[in-house]
Each structure stands twice: as structure tokens, then as C-alpha cells.
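Dear Dr. K.,

Following up on our conversation at the group meeting, I've run the structure prediction for Cytochrome c biogenesis protein CcsA from Lobelia urens. I'm pasting the input sequence below exactly as I used it, so you can double-check it against your construct before we proceed with anything downstream. Let me know if the numbering doesn't match what you have in your notebook.
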Amino acid sequence: MIFSTFEHILNHISFSIVSIVISILVINLLVTELIKPYELSEKGLIPTFLCLTGLLVTRWIYSGHFPLSDLYESLIFLSWSFSLIHIFAYFKKNKNLSAITASSTLFTQGFATSSLLSEIQKPAILVPALQSEWLIMHVSMMILSYAALLCGSLLSVALLVFIFRKKSNRLLKSFSFDEIQYSYDRSTILRNSSFFSGKNYYKSQLIQQLDFWSYRVISLGFLFLTTGIISGAVWANEAWGSYWSWDPKEIWAFITWMIFAIYLHIRTNNNFPGETSALVAALGFLIIWICYFGVNLLGIGLHSYGSFPLTSS
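The predicted C-alpha cells came back this morning:
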């Protein structure tokens, strides 16, 4: 009872803190900078990270297993992963990534604490197949990869917005001078800051940063995803007698892996335009949610856990 109450308190404190942070950031964005948004975001998400860490440790202690056995626990771990990435962005002084991690933590934490998942918020005994040390290795790597890939994909979406806005502005200017330029060079837009002057210089730097950090974060997520798939295959062989069963969850995990493998290939190939890799990452953003939520909610396959606790009767 004490552990449950403590978990409940930590859960609502973390959600309240991140909600206040996002609210003040939005007010400052729409009205005026009364408080420096970046400093506020830094200070707000750090106690959120500590609260979520305490929540996971508390649940681990009184449940007797690593808290990754159902949708509720995986969402809490996903929120913790977003806040962990925020800590990384804090040390790197990356404002764009911090804004994404703060918003992602808010929405994930909000859904986890909603009434939709109230029935599975109480921990229970794991089914025999999940009583394995591979639970920590496989599921944690997969959730960490989801968090990193989602953040990197959102950075790519922001990159697309700035690139297409820049191209549309150039097109409007070309109409005004009766001259339309049809060519578009990735290296010029992403790396040659001398192309811009005045206000456009800042946009050039921002585009370069978004491209750089989306690549780095997605690369990290891809490493986690690869580790998660390999460890899952080993665990599947121990539990089900086969490394790969073409289960719907496995298929979509493989599709996710392929999408981001294509992204990394395009991103490191200078023959492709700058927005091509960002478009692939944006597609990957949707694929991740299908893999994480969609397949489970269909209630089919070996991973058909959905929003129900993985407990034995």
C-alpha cells in the first residue's frame, strides 16, 4: 500500500512538473519571454526524470520484476527514455531536441496516467514466458530505440518544414523578379551558410543543426533497435523454440529497422537531396507507432498484449 501510494505521488508530480513547463513555454512563445524558455525546460525536466526514475525503481521493488510487463509500464519507461534523452540534450545545449523531448514526455506521461489504462496500473505476476532475464535486455532496448527514433524523426519533420518554407520563399521571390530557379542542391542548403545573408543566416544554421542532430539521434536509436531485435530473437528461441516466427510484431519491427536503415543510407549519400532522408524519417515516425501500438491493439500474434496486463491466471 505504501509503495503504491508513493508511486502514485511520483507519477502525478512528474506529470504536473512537465505540464507546467510546457504551459509556461507556450505562454512565453505566444506572449513574451518573461522567463528564459530553455533554462526553464532544463530545470523542469530534470526533476521529472528523477521522479520517473524513482517511480520505476519503486514499481520494480514491490512488483518483483522489471517494470516492462504491460502497456502502462512500457509507457512510463518510454516517458523516462524521453526525459533521459532530454538530459543528453541538456549537456549538449540543444534547444530543439529539448523542446521535442519535453513535449513527448508530456503526451506519453499523460496517456499513461489516463483513465484508459487504470485497470492495468496495478502490478501483477508475470506469465512464465516473460519470467526471463531477457525481459530487461530486449524490451528496454526496444523502448529506448522507440524514444530515440521518435525524437530523431520529429527533428527531421522540423527540418522538412524549414526546407520547404525556404524553397517556397525562394519561389515567391523568383516570381517577383520573373525568374524561377528549378535546381536545389543539398550541400548548398544544409552546409553552405554563405548562401544566406542577414536573417536567413540563422535559418541556415538551424537547418544544419536539425539535420545534424536528427542523424545522430536516429543513429543511436537504430543501434538500440538492432540490439533489441537480436536479443529478442535469442529470447524467442529460448521461449518458443524459434529465432524468428514472422509474428506481426516481428514483421513490423523488421519494417521499422529497414526504414531507418534506408534513412541512414540516404543520409550518408550526398547524391540524394537533403529532404529525401528527412522524408524517410517522417515515414518512420508513423511506422514506429504502428509497431508499438497498432499491432498489439489488433490482438493477434505472439506479442498480442495490447492494453492488458501480462499476468498468469
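Two things stood out to me. The radius of gyration is 22 Å. The CA atoms of residues 138 and 228 lie 5 Å apart.

Best regards,
J.T.
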